[in-house]
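Hey all, sorry for the wall of text incoming. These are the two entities for the joint prediction.
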Amino acid sequence: MGKYRVDIRDVEFNLTEMLKVQGWQKYGLEDQDIKGILTEYVKFVENEVFPSREPSDLIGLKHVDGKVIVPEALRAPQKSFYDNGWFALGMPEDIGGTPVPEALYVSCMSLATGANCAWMMYPGLSRAALNVINLKGSEFMKTHIVPPMMSGAWGGTMCLTEAGAGSDVGALRSTAKPLGNGKYSIQGTKIFISSGESDLYENNIHLVLARTPGGAEGTKGISLFVVPRFRINDDGSMGASNNVVCSKLEHKMGIHASATCELQFGVTGESEGWLIGDEFEGMSTMFIMMNEARLYCGIQGEAQGNLAYMMTDTYVKERIQFGKEIIHHPDVRRSMLRMRAMSRGMRALCLYTANLFDAAHENKEIEGLIGLLTPICKAYCSENGFNVSVEALQSHGGYGYCSEYGIEQFVRDTKIATIYEGTNAIQAIDFVMRKILKDGGKSLTALTTQMVASVQKLDPQFKREQELFGKVLMSAQTTMQKISEWAKAGQHNMILQNCTDFLNFASQMVVAWRLLESAQMAAQKVGTASGDDKAYYESKMVDFKVYCSQFLVHNLSIAKTITDFSEDMCSLEI
Amino acid sequence: MGKYRVDIRDVEFNLTEMLKVQGWQKYGLEDQDIKGILTEYVKFVENEVFPSREPSDLIGLKHVDGKVIVPEALRAPQKSFYDNGWFALGMPEDIGGTPVPEALYVSCMSLATGANCAWMMYPGLSRAALNVINLKGSEFMKTHIVPPMMSGAWGGTMCLTEAGAGSDVGALRSTAKPLGNGKYSIQGTKIFISSGESDLYENNIHLVLARTPGGAEGTKGISLFVVPRFRINDDGSMGASNNVVCSKLEHKMGIHASATCELQFGVTGESEGWLIGDEFEGMSTMFIMMNEARLYCGIQGEAQGNLAYMMTDTYVKERIQFGKEIIHHPDVRRSMLRMRAMSRGMRALCLYTANLFDAAHENKEIEGLIGLLTPICKAYCSENGFNVSVEALQSHGGYGYCSEYGIEQFVRDTKIATIYEGTNAIQAIDFVMRKILKDGGKSLTALTTQMVASVQKLDPQFKREQELFGKVLMSAQTTMQKISEWAKAGQHNMILQNCTDFLNFASQMVVAWRLLESAQMAAQKVGTASGDDKAYYESKMVDFKVYCSQFLVHNLSIAKTITDFSEDMCSLEI
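and here's what came out:
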């Protein structure tokens, strides 16, 4: 296993230099506090989370008599995470949380996720479920479910998918029959449920989408239910089994320690649940957390890409071939420059987006921007976290393909992020159809206006990049024009067959923009900086140049793919 | 596990329509014979090889008391392969082989490799070793080693890599001391040896690179030795252990059933070997088979990409979401079009290259062309076989990430092909430095001249593609000019940092060219064709269009990356 390393300077740069504490006053945190929290968090991750990564992958899960037994290696980080208040970080104060700026919370989450993605999914999903319950739950739930979930005694899940209902959630067939006592009897089988069953928690609180009698077809007839693994007595104590059975544990490419379960409700006996949110409003209740869940998917890519990059940085500076460390071989150098620019670009994007959450509630424009950036974070970072991991594997040669350095695990673990929480194709459709066309292009125009201003003010040393970015902005216009024409002509298949390319185009523009802003600030500071600081600022300027010449440049050809797209590509039989 | 399916029409098109039987007369095979052999081979692969794929991945290998035990599932295809003459296919007649055109042999090899890559490596490496022994070995070896290797009683390996000598083969430290009786005593430890030890064969014949006393440093002091696992008595019978010990079995991302071994020579006792080829000529003796071995690496990508595509084609035509088979969703359609164009493009490239082998011995120009196309086949097909597998996984959604349909296995299994037989970075360096610059650009010019002619004669319905290809050919010139300038100025680091991009550029040009020729022929035949034939020819025309608009188009931006490359990218500290 390679050694754990984190580019903490870059995390701090994003938090304390780029995002500043705009709107963070309410948290009463100075730069030093932020750095202090990060330092403690890194210690936790390095000493407790990272060592659990390899054994949890190798040993995986056991499914015995319907119970799921996690690898022993997970118990220490799990206990420490709750006991030392890391789960409470970023949660509301009234339920025992420690509010911090979203970007700081996400930075921490990213560190833990990079170090053991499979483990982090247990508290991660629990947090998502807890947030829904805390926001929409009854007094009973707030009194008796929220506290044990905060303490880590109980966990939580989100149960959407069924065998015939994946991307098409509206096709689900699970039912909820009123029992007359305010509760419902849930029946159905859910698949691909992360953390669906495990001995990390005493009880699991499932959020389950199901249909009540008389509801409409499709998503409109769906409601959300709180269904515990063990029943909860009136005094809040844990009761008998609620007949939620893990009938299958999936065998997966990666995240071997994350329990992906098939769950049967109401098969071996009655599974009772409570309605949460209004009847038939199941989708919107579930979607309360969707922006955050999708951002978090992006973080899974960003986090693993960044750690894979750092571990490779160590390797290429130690491994000797042809009489020198391989970092001195130009092709390896090229890979490292690409990996760093992409990894840091993803970080800048995710933290910028996370920071918008803090200001979102008061501001429609920011909400629109979050809506636009969410599918970008989700799809682009999951895709490129995977790509960086693949390039990290390649840089390790034969050793990368073997499990020795722990690099191939990144490739296997990251891949899932392009699929769940809405596949990347679903993100592309959401991006083009809802976030741009339905919005009349308002949010996109606001964003590109900001980019134009950034490009215009660029330091002269970035002349080449300024020129390229200018061309890309122009081709963004012609491409959007093409898409609008198709929309007006009702040629939706033409749009839908190009939206993955357009999402990719837009994503690279946004990441380049965040790296541009970073490089611009670095250029201002580098003159008076010295030592490590100077080297760091120089590296930020290089990152922007590399990103432009290796990634952004491809926007010119992506634009050509879209604008030259011919109708017969949509019609011929395949 | 998904169902096995093969695009046999496309294999036949390449063999009997595109490559014709130019120069194949010597084999006395008519089109019908070729189709007959393919039909029988497909039966063997479908019934015996493919069913072994999943269990051999799941069960993997056992390492007990230095012995490596393969999964039971491998024994049936292994026996059948040798017993039914499939190993003999394409081998010389004088040792009991059945000579066939190289392109036909490679087509068959590809089918078996796609269906179980990990297994195919055992006879594949044995064949490579056997070819060296048959060409360069002593009479004793031809009499006593070749026959049991032909029958499948014995296997073979190639032992190059050591812990400190990966890409840098010249750094190896294994030694060979003359014993005075014509034999040598071999000492050293080799790593990453495929098929290094297994109970599929009674004896293993290792080809081992080592240093004799007094040899120069680096590759010039290296010789090649034949070192059996068990000694061979004068009468050819198997003798005592030759002290070749499997001291470690690697735990890998994929090809779980392929035994990747650390082998110790001369540690537990003397390991005897014979010199093969001249002393100090070890590298060139080993490299006799290198073009073929590298083409075969490309085939591993091509083969698995093609099977992953076909299995996905079945899935997307059966899986229903939003009330229709998902092939009717435009984004899935886009993926399928991309996967087909890429998979068939790789096949066309590999079979075209294989076919050149048949004419190579008489013709310097063809030898140059093979030299140029070999790193293209190796790097591009290994890279894109992986990419197609990843896209196949994505098209299966959550099911793709689970082992159920056997798709994620393609992703894990193909990845190794970008690394071994010279990493893809090594291929890129070989391509630019040796195959182009050292050759004075002769082979490349000959190739692009052919492409220009092909583009000029294109059917008018491909006007858009003709225009794009024309632009790409122009940018090939400016890009090569840039590289020549760097070469003249001695700026080798500039070249080396761009050669991966240039290899990719050249590869896409060549694949597009092979698809162009296919589309051109399809356009001529489609008018008089009907039924399945008509649909097939139409699909070939679509493939070319899709490849141009989705892949070749990016050559324009790759060219910009290279021509705009700035010197500071080579110098700044990272």
